[in-house]
Design brief:
The chain has one domain. The chain contains six helices and no strands. α4 runs antiparallel to α5.
Length: about 150
Amino acid sequence: MKCTMESEESKVPFLAAMLGYAGLIPFLVFAVGLWIVPPVLTEMFDKALLTYAACILAFMGAIHWGAAMNGSVNSWQLGISVVPALVAWLALNISTSWDYSILIIGFALLCVVDSLATRRKLFPEWYPRLRIPLTSVVILSLISGALAS
């Protein structure tokens, strides 16, 4: 029997996990909905998935701004914090053949940046343990949405 001890620093706070996973509900509803709703509702579900994803991508970038404000201001984090909002805006205002791709790439790259920030001790140890599974579901939802639309 293998016994491992999880440190308090690496344990995902319950409320963060609950809110994070609850935030996946619109991704899942809209992505699945695109496959099952009548054609008259497809455009609405497509727009809902894209705009929700754009809002969440911008929100995820803003976490860097908040972290930079929490201690000594980190210019690297401040700079990074605005990029996801710009990427989200671009995805909503570009040709529809690129919208999902831009958001998928944005979420994937931000997840990598967040992991690097955690290694630099800019985020708590537990953050990637929450962020990576959430981002995986988000990306799969966006891929599903892209294939259905």
